[in-house]
Write a structure and sequence with these properties.
Blueprint: H1 2-23, E1 30-31, E2 35-37, E3 41-48, E4 59-63, E5 68-73, E6 80-94, E7 97-109, E8 119-127, E9 135-137, E10 140-144, E11 147-151, E12 170-174, H2 191-207, E13 212-214, E14 217-225, E15 234-242, E16 248-254, E17 258-269, E18 272-277, E19 282-284, E20 289-291, E21 298-304, E22 313-320, E23 324-333
């Protein structure tokens, strides 16, 4: 009876929150915030309010429009992630570098979002070279097993989208004061601020260079990245070298800073980036060095209790098959560090 009562309370609260959120949402896939300022980096948050005729949503595909560049999706627990890369129609400036390729489609796959609930899917990206008053369309394909909903209709000549049956989510671009503050590429910071951040990053990196030995393993270079506003998961990285003659394996990771820590692999092939959890652990072959780094192997901190901030530390416990447990402290660098 206790279990049933607890579930009932939990379900009742979830239903209330869902109903409250849904009351302010639209029946189709849409953005939580429907406006963005010119030349700013944003968290574009898509709301998926229901399934397909009662069926659970298992995949969400989002095509990115020209002018929304340098996109990075937010991983979701229980979902696989794919990033399709391609050519932009023109080049975009990224800290002095001319970039002509990047993410053009994001796919969250093999999930299970019941029709009874709604959820959000977040993409960080920069609005660049788009005139104020323009609306960027993000066509979405919502898949529910063998059922498909395409949210891809766009009104002609900027007309009213409310008459469309399956409108694509729109992001209206507005002018901002000095184009607004760009927290990702630090466009709004002066040179003193940039220098200060660089120095802070260098100090953290230096203190993170401590090497720890356990058995035949040598662990070094541990760090984490600061989490951006609204980001629910964090990333951790380090290097492990096996100086012995016997293979070992990192079987699990835990941390008091989060409810769960998973070992993930990110692989790019044929311009498609896929991320998956290594449920069997990470092999550390004899005589080999394995590096966990952004865009490759990494730790994913889920259910983070307090967002990681630059200058903080994150304690973790690594458990190896043969070398046993070892405690490691990760220094938190800036979100753009390493």
């Amino acid at each position: 009876m206790k279990t049933i009562k607890t579930f009932g309370k939990t379900f009742g609260l979830a239903a209330l929150l869902s109903a409250t959120a849904f009351a302010g949402a639209e029946a189709h896939v849409s953005f939580l915030d429907k406006q963005a300022t010119q030349d700013s980096t944003i968290l574009a948050t898509l709301q998926v309010p229901h399934g397909c005729d009662g069926k659970s949503t298992t995949e969400v595909r989002v095509k990115l429009p020209e002018g929304f560049v340098f996109a990075k999706p937010q991983p979701k627990p229980g979902w696989e992630l794919e990033v399709i890369r391609g050519d932009y129609q023109k080049s975009y400036d990224n800290h002095g570098d001319k970039v002509k390729t990047g993410a053009v489609e994001i796919r969250w796959k093999n999930g299970n979002l019941s029709d009874d609930f709604y959820d959000t899917f977040v993409i960080q990206g920069k609005v660049s070279g788009v005139e104020a008053g323009t609306s960027l369309a993000f066509p979405v394909t919502q898949m529910c097993g063998d059922a498909v909903e395409a949210w891809d209709q766009v009104a002609k000549d900027g007309g009213d989208p409310h008459g469309l049956k399956s409108p694509a989510p729109l992001l209206k671009i507005v002018a901002g004061e000095g184009h607004g503050h760009d927290h990702d590429d630090m466009a709004g910071m002066d040179m003193t601020d940039k220098t200060g951040m660089d120095m802070a990053g260098m100090t953290a990196a230096a203190s993170a260079g401590e090497t720890i030995n356990t058995g035949d393993l040598e662990i070094s270079g541990g760090f984490a990245k600061a989490m951006l506003p609204g980001q629910p998961v964090g990333g951790g990285f380090f290097t492990v070298k096996n100086n012995g003659k016997t293979d070992d394996r990192l079987v699990s990771v835990s941390s008091p800073a989060s409810g769960e820590v998973q070992i993930h692999e990110m692989v790019t092939k044929d311009n498609v980036m896929r991320m998956r959890q290594l449920k069997e652990g990470l092999a550390i072959a004899a005589g080999q060095t394995v590096k966990l780094e952004p865009g490759n192997l990494h730790l994913m901190f889920q259910k983070v209790k307090t967002p990681f901030k630059q200058g903080d530390t994150v304690p973790v416990t690594l458990t190896f098959e043969k070398a046993g447990k070892v405690d490691l402290v990760l220094q938190v660098l800036s979100a753009q560090g390493k």
